[in-house]
Amino acid sequence: MNKFKRLSGALAAFGAGIACLPAAAQAADAQHDFAVRGIGALQCSAFLEPAGQAAAFERLSIENWILGYLTAENRLTPDTYDIMALQAPQVLPNLVAALCRTNPNAPVETVVAGLVQHLEPIKIDRNSPLVVTKSGQTEVAIRQATLVMVEKALVSRRYYHGHAKGEYGPDLQKALVKFQKDQSLPQTGVPDSATILRLLIELPESNTGKK
Q1: Directed axis angle between helix 92-102 and helix 108-119, to 10°?
Q2: Could you tell me the pTM of the whole model?
Q3: Cβ pair 18, 44 in contact under 8 A
């Protein structure tokens, strides 16, 4: 048997072993489910297609390395569906870069681990449907559970006087615009990544809006 045949046989056996693995062997939330980020979310059939394979390799970058790291966190961390409530993965390299600037001698992996800890307060502990929020030409998808956190934070800071139901409407849009204006953020009127980070992580609870 030549080397190619031995390699093919070994890969076939390895593939068969993978096929027997449960889909969520160490899934972390109560329903044994977790969010898969980045290239890992592709179906193998799509990955093996020439176009899909090319696109996947084009995205093999710091962004997807971080997404793979976050997927592992989702799988292994108890009571966690998605450690990163943000639905815009393109912000991840910027977040890592910001942390690296304050820790220039730290390994990137250590910085990403620190980012995970930074995002811990707004993690999703169970699967939650995506809600599409739109204001003008700006559209953002956000987990309903995260939207509830946004509403509660705006209520506590007196920007919003509605009930936290995970529903997006004109009153919540106006509250977001007012908060964004006060924080010198782009006034998108939607719960974008910059707004979520400022509202849910960066500001102390005592920082309230004007009545």
Answers
A1: 110
A2: 0.72
A3: no
Q: State the residue for tokens 């681990």.
A: 113
Contact by Cβ (8 Å): 77, 67: no
The angle at the Cα of 93, spanning 88 to 99, to the nearest 5 degrees, equals 120
Residue 211: exposure state from Cβ atoms within 10 A (0-12, 13-18, ≥19): exposed
Give the span between the Cα atoms of 82 and 79, in whole angstroms: 9
Q: pLDDT value at position 97?
A: 83
The tens digit of pLDDT for each residue in 90-131 reads 888 888 888 888 878 888 888 888 888 888 889 999 999 999
Closest CA to 118 of 210, 200, 63: 200
End-to-end CA distance of the chain: 80
Do 149 and 166 meet the contact criterion of CB atoms below 8 Å apart?
A: no
